[in-house]
Amino acid sequence: MKLRVLGCSGGIGQGLHTSSYMIDDDILLDAGTGVGDLSLQEMHQLKHIFITHSHMDHVLSIPLLVDTLFSDLQDQPLLVYARAETIKTLKEHIFNWQLWPDFTELPSKENPSLKLIEMNPGDVVSVGERHIEMVDVNHTVPASAYIVESASRVFAYSGDTTTNDNLWDRLNQYSGLDFMIVETAFSEEEIELARLAKHYCPSLLAQDLKKLKHKTRIGVSHLKPGDEEHIFKQCCNEVNNEHELCHLASDDHFQI
Ligand SMILES: [Zn+2]
Ligand SMILES: [Zn+2]
Fold first, then answer.
1. What is the pLDDT of residues 9-27, one digit of tens each?
2. What is the Å distance from ligand 1's center to 52 Cα?
3. Which residues contact 215 (CB under 8 A, 6 or more apart)?
4. Which domains are present in the chain?
């Protein structure tokens, strides 16, 4: 499968976009600001969006995307998968006719342009040959990681999380792990903030990576703008060659 990084930053700025990753040409994992860099033609190919949690940096492009694609979504709605709590937040706070029109009722309830589909941790949704499993993680709101398996290749995306056992236990049940994207939002100096906001910092990430039995290549994401080099260097020191770390950037392409 192909993976393209649309956004992997903890914020915005020139060349920096928030979390969104494209699998092949038709699937998004999260829909942060990076979606806005796609051409119209590329946007029209998107059919499935898997959301990790309700925070704005991960969902911001959904309302704009469905509006942009509206005339083409009459026969085949955009399918957004998320856990029940995330769907409730999207409906109450975005698609409420106040912040944005409710596209789950447009152009009609019977024939909507957007479908919000409930998915629970442990569920697997298959899109063609790609099998996408939702895994519970540990953040300030109900949040998930996704594990994508295709043709015996396995890719995992942590979403936002801090210390947990569940993601690593589940990954250990797969026979291999070919690539992973994991967040490290804060530097070591901000470990208390990382604990409060339920994100990783380099030492918390390194402690959790010891739970992973697969040696793999890991893309580090969600770094605070302006502090990227510093946080990434701390990650390399803490992880200490146990895994190959790479510093992700917008428009990176990977063949997994
Ligand atoms: Zn978050
Ligand atoms: Zn985030």
1. 999 999 999 999 999 999 9
2. 9
3. 242, 243
4. 2-255 (3.60.15.10)
